[in-house]
């Protein structure tokens, strides 16, 4: 069954690409690629909410921490300090990138690979730092605490000149991958970026599906099922919750990094509370404890949103979706939940 | 040395002294009962041993000679103490088999990372956990329920699952909190036989229970509590005829 889900989803990814190619609408691949990265945030949140039963109303903050970290680090011009030993050492191992910026001046920059590592590190540190105090809380209290965290990160992004304030940061370089190919928004790399993004999502899905079926995954589900009993079975509930919170934060941060290099920048809207609520709404549509459901719901809803189907009522639509799901289909609408 | 030594254990909640300087030992290989009227502090005492009430107001608890009164529940479980709950606490959204597999947690290894990568070692561990859990289900006579949703079972069946799950920890000491409450007379007899079989298999049992005839039948030693204090201890016969016990149960002078 597990293999069939992966094969079906992979076939769907190829079928959509072929269909857009045949109908001459391959411009749609841009939004489908972006939907992949948002989908990645959603599956990480689904693991946290649906399987371990811990809500986060601040997950957009981790996406933004990833995006802003890479946007800051990968746009610093190192030319003035290019003779410094650290820089020459990085250059020697290929971790700097030469090129020209948007105005045509020559620049020397850190490789996005370095900023990816930094983004993962920063998001994990923040997740452990914020998770240690707030994961003691349960239910509404945890929701409110994570909401507060999301608001703080939003205001920091908006108010910090280094992060570009209301304009955010732009001019991030392409993310170099392999064989001269890179993840970016250019037409030349559109097909490659699409497949790379979805392959990454499937790779993460593979890890998470494995996790759920393992001893550690069962411990997480037990915490959701009954925390007191889980403790009595010898499960260190606070440690598991904390590690899982950090894992889902890192997944969101990785999505933020790639999205930022794909779209060429990031703005404070990505950190907003409405984004966090949107992720929660999508997990609910998918059926809470259903990774595939969350991924499918996330892909469809984000694609429609990115194509502008909901117009200026974008956020209102997600609010309405949340109400409707809670009222009429609390176990999700993508498919029937299996035990 | 006794397997479990409770010394001068006290626990107050605000002004309420729920357990007052209670002392008793549980000998290895016995069934040790704790009785007392409602509000005597039985469940508080029980939760102090299991780690779900921390910190204590005073006293010590030694298990196998090592202090455990400062340990959280998961560390107490790791020492080899398993428990059941007065109100059944099964894992919802999980099958009966999965519930018992969680009980194997302390008997197995495997981190988040090895689970994600599904390393051969993790897959092998998973197979042995599944086999062990099936054995525990079979021993409890509920192997046919393995695939059922734990929450959909009858009350008596849920109690059996909880017991199988506790035994999956391979404990040296099993704590049973009112194992017969809510059961029919027939089911109570069955659980009594089961507890005796558990003891005979080498597991020490500490049991809190209201059903006097069950306790008098199965226990080797009984400690009686009233208003948080120990009022009597001994064999069932001794405790049954102890004047203080008769007084608190029957209210006669």
Structure description:
The complex is a heterodimer of chains A (339) and B (253). Chain A is mostly helical and 339 residues long. Chain A has 2 domains: 2-74 and 111-328, ABC transporter involved in vitamin B12 uptake, BtuC; 77-110, no CATH class. Chain A has helices spanning 2-22, 28-51, 59-73, 85-92, 112-134, 139-159, 190-212, 215-225, 227-232, 237-263, 273-286, 291-306, 314-328, and strands spanning 96-100, 106-110, 169-170, 175-176, 182-183, 265-266. In chain A, a hairpin with a 5-residue loop joins strand 1 (96-100) and strand 2. The longest helix of chain A has 27 residues, at 237-263. Chain A is globular and about 60 Å long. Chain A starts with a helix and ends in an 11-residue tail after the last helix. The model of chain A has no long low-confidence stretch (mean pLDDT 89). Chain B is built from 10 helices and 10 strands. Chain B has helices spanning 42-50, 73-78, 96-103, 112-117, 120-139, 155-167, 185-200, 212-218, 236-240, 243-250, and strands at residues 4-13, 16-26, 31-35, 58-63, 66-67, 81-83, 173-177, 204-208, 221-226, 229-234. In chain B, the strands form 2 sheets. Chain B has a 6-stranded mixed beta sheet, with helices on both faces. Chain A binds chain B through residues 207-208, 210-211, 213-219, 221-222, 224-226, 228-237, 240, 243-244, 247, 289, 339, and chain B through 50-52, 72-74, 77-78, 82-83, 85, 89-95, 98, 101-103, 105-106, 108-112, 114-118, 122, 125-126, 129, 149, 165, 169.
